Amino acid sequence: MDLFSSIQSNLLSPAILFFVLGIFAAVSKSDLKIPESLYTTLTIYLLITIGFKGGVAINDAGIGAVWVPGLAAMALGILIPLWTYQVLRNLGKFSVADAGAVAAHYGSVSAVTFIAATNFLKSIQEPYESYASAFLAVMDSPAIIVGVMLGKGALGGKLSLVDAGIRHALKDTVFGRGVLLLIGSMIIGSVSGKSGMTMVEGFFVTPFQGVLALFLLEMGMVAGRRLGEVKKVGVFLLVFGITAPLIHGTLGALVGSWAGLSIGGTTLLGVLAASASYIAAPAAVRLSLPEANPTYSLTAALAITFPFNITVGVPLFFQIAKHLHS
């Protein structure tokens, strides 16, 4: 499958089409709305499902098969915010706080982008390591903490580890809804194994695609409402929002190939490295870096990088993974 065919296959999937419908609804100023309580429920369902399936896969594969790619994913989560911060400070002329906030978002990961990537791989019948969802948890927390430290001026030696901002970041990334559900359900899945999956398969497997379609409909509306803010963030952030995932995704694919992942697994690590958080990172940054302007980070992550990744990025990183394994 070439790049054009990959993009076409991805764009015609129901989940992506619902995302496009959401953008259209927002742009056309439709009165369509997803209730906040339903959105929260859909988020919880997706996070638990991802974590539980990943835990079952870890149980099946054994920790010996997981630790090398897991450490590689964690290293990406730590390193990406470091150079992202430098680019934003030196080329984008962002303030310390704003550069740290955007770096935290781009080092952190998007669970929905990951799901879109797994859907794409399933649609083209490309196998992948089912424990790859473990990468979500090990990349998220370190990236947010590093981004907050940078935003607090850690490079200038102004930050103490007992700083309130770091305490907030630690609390929000370890005990916040996203990471808590991912890690907690992953532990439950790894303990219960395949027998546990058999018990809940009717709830966690069969309805999954429909839930994802509803969630992406809402994400499309959120992204559509932020399209007008792209003008406010400037040309630099627009270019950054597309260039950063290209560089990070390629690096993630290289690391995945080096760590011994399959073509599908390499694709997923590339997609995670390319993604930007719009759930866990905003919550942590809002408390830890209140002086940062959320327009920059949220608009870049949700209105620029997220649509790019789920439409073009996922099939592109698949092609890169294929090339690395050829």
Query: Which CATH class is shown?
Result: Mainly Alpha
What class, by secondary structure content?
A: mainly alpha
Model regions low in confidence, pLDDT < 50 over at least 5 residues? none
The percent of residues in helical segments reads over 70%
**How does the major sheet shape up?**
none
Q: Mean pLDDT, rounded to whole units?
A: 89
CATH topology: Na+/H+ antiporter like fold
Named at the architecture level, the CATH assignment is Up-down Bundle
Question: Alpha-carbon distance between the termini?
Answer: 14 Å
Q: What gross morphology would you assign?
A: globular
Tally of structural domains? 1
Quick description:
The chain is built from 14 helices and no strands. It is mainly α and 326 residues long.
Give a structural overview.
It contains 14 helices and no strands. 80% of the residues lie in helices and 0% in strands. It has one domain: Na+/H+ antiporter like fold (Up-down Bundle), CATH 1.20.1530. With 326 residues, it is mainly alpha-helical. It has helices at 3-11, 14-27, 36-61, 63-90, 96-107, 111-123, 134-151, 164-175, 177-204, 208-226, 230-258, 263-274, 280-288, 294-325. The two termini are 14 Å apart.
Main attributes of the structure:
326 residues, 14 helices, mainly alpha, globular, Na+/H+ antiporter like fold
